[in-house]
Amino acid sequence: MTRILITDPMQLESVHFPDVEVDDCSGIAREDLVEIIGRYDAVITRSRTRLDEALLERATKLRVIGRGGVGVDNIDIEAASRRGILVLNAPEANNISAAELAIALMLSAARGVSRSDRLIRDGMWDRKFLGRELEGAHLGIVGLGRIGSLVSRRAQGLGMHVMAYDPYISRHRAEVLKVELYDELETMLEQSEFLTVHTPLTEETTALIGREELARMPAGAIVVNAARGGIIDEEALLEALESGRLFAAGLDVYVHEPPTIDNPLLQNEKVVLTAHLGANTIQAQARVGVDILERTIKALNGDYSAGIVNAPTFDPEVTRLLGLHLKLGEALGTMAEQLAVGRIQELEIEFSGTFPLDPDPVAIAVAKGFLEPILNEPPNYINAPALLKERDIRVSKVMASRSRGYTNHVMVTASSSKGRSRVGGTVLGDDPRIVSIDGFSIEIRPEGTMLICTNYDRPGAVGRVGTVLGDAGININSMQLSRVEEDKTAMFAVTLDQTPSEEVLQTLKDLGDVIQALRIVHFRSDVS
What we know:
Elements: E1 2-6, E2 20-24, H1 30-36, E3 42-45, H2 53-56, E4 64-67, H3 77-82, E5 86-89, H4 95-111, H5 113-121, E6 138-142, H6 146-157, E7 161-165, H7 171-177, E8 180-182, H8 185-189, E9 194-197, H9 211-216, E10 221-225, H10 234-242, E11 246-251, E12 271-273, H11 282-300, H12 316-339, E13 344-353, H13 360-371, H14 384-390, E14 394-399, E15 408-416, E16 419-428, E17 431-437, E18 440-444, E19 449-456, H15 461-471, E20 476-484, E21 489-496, H16 502-509, E22 519-522
Parallel strand pairs: 1-2, 1-3, 3-4, 4-5, 6-7, 6-9, 7-8, 9-10, 10-11, 11-12, 13-14
Antiparallel strand pairs: 13-15, 15-16, 16-17, 17-18, 19-21, 19-22, 20-21
Helix pairs in contact: 4-6, 12-13, 13-14
């Protein structure tokens, strides 16, 4: 009999599986959990129970941890992985609820629902307020993933003309959804009478919608954020509301949660506010419980197809012999994604030289690394190929006859509507290395924050860059240079202890030596 322990409240009353015993101990105290966790094959939790290393040491039978919902911050993933415990979640269960809340915020902001509610409760009967209709209006969606797609369908049902900006969604996918896809965010914003964002919060998307972006929108537009606090710059949003540039806004998420009482957005009557309720519906909570229980049971039976957060990589022999090449593949994928411009259509992965085993698993590592910077939920070696296919990004693998001068070499080419970026790498001893970027030979470890630019090959150019970074208190870990004699251009790549601010980057661009805009690549700490 397989035994599963439930530690947090979940709706599972109607779910039964043969040969599975489910013990509902919702709200169990930690001291009691320590005593009984060793009896169970799986634990299912929400956000309350903290499954840290000390607790997992007592879980001698544990094979699977299920997290109802998206976040796994309360689970020590590294400790679980060391013990061979699978961790999985159920991120899709809340999608419908999140999409419907975005629509609700749009409607409420357009019709002044919360404003009128407050006035009536204060004894005032104001019928002078003129709202906005959604029918016929242009809606811009930033991020056309699962939730953004659901929003688009519902908005079309309300008669809206739906547009989208998402550099990782193909035109074919947009055509299927009957959405007008834009290559440039700025162009879409100029048409967006309504705007809703549905992207993860990353370095790239933080303050994605700021002063310049809001200024591009038609006067009287309405903005909604039910994704992640910080995607829309709160200070810029407030300025646009107070100036009358925006008609209204709807917010379910905030930079700081809960927002403090002195946050001026809370006092602005043009803003509709909810308390991060995207997942909070009866149906969503029921789906979370059922989904995570089903996935947990599948994982216990060897089916790792859904929701695995720390997916097993490959056969232990593959991991032993190709482990460093897998890390290299992830780093190359991450670089290819962050250096590319435009909508990626194809990833070509070229292998040359000799490898300890068939290098095909390295292609999956490239796919995983490519997806890391752009997804809310971390991809893994199981779902990465499917996630690329879902975005209509073709993957081709080539075994080259030439060696490129290394015992083994991997070249990743990302082709987009605006050109291609190319990154090559190898494993030297026990060390994955980047050895070429867009035709420049340059050898550097993929770690931390990497700053890359092409520049005119002039005396003092690199020194001036170092001075700017030093004045900003940014320490350089390593630096590599490369030049092309024919056109007198050079490339430098430096790894840094800190990420330069936008002001520092602008100062570097203003030096006059830079040809191509500075690009920042962020590597996870466990890639190199």
